[in-house]
Design goal:
Order of helices and strands: EEEEEEEEEEEHEEH
Number of strands: 13
Strand content: 25-35%
Distance between the termini: 49 Å
Shape: globular
CATH topology: UDP N-Acetylglucosamine Acyltransferase, domain 1
CATH superfamily: Hexapeptide repeat proteins
Helix content: 10-25%
Structural class: mainly beta
């Protein structure tokens, strides 16, 4: 883990191993970073942001789930119950977790196959 100068990290954040954070970066509350992710200097990350494993963040992010190189948004407006569910099932800040809504509520796409409704 490498953290440069002038970093502001909010409350209840989870920073995983191998992360690199550039100088003068602000990370909001309840943010999760994946393994080996990189955040460029002078980037502002809002509250409730999830950064996927190996992602490279070069632009400001506001309440999204991002993944890839460079990091692109794959889900907007993360809700608190989604963060709680990820923690409950032990998700490692996400290999690009995509949430779906079905008859049982909101769950990761990977779990949807297990609980598919039989007709």
């Amino acid at each position: 883990m490498h953290i440069a100068h002038n970093i502001e990290i909010g409350r209840h954040c989870a920073l995983k191993a191998g992360i690199i954070i550039g100088g003068s970066t602000r990370i909001g509350d309840m943010c999760w970073t994946g393994l080996n992710s990189t955040i460029k200097h002078k980037v502002k990350i809002g509250n409730k942001v999830i950064i996927g494993s190996g992602a490279s963040v070069i632009n400001n992010i506001d309440e999204d789930i991002v993944a890839g190189v460079p990091a692109k948004s794959i889900k907007h407006k993360v809700r608190s119950n989604q963060l709680f569910l990820m923690a409950a099932i032990g998700a490692t800040v996400a290999l690009s977790v995509i949430w779906v809504r079905n008859v049982r509520g909101i769950m990761p796409l990977a779990l949807k196959r297990r609980f598919r409704r039989r007709e």
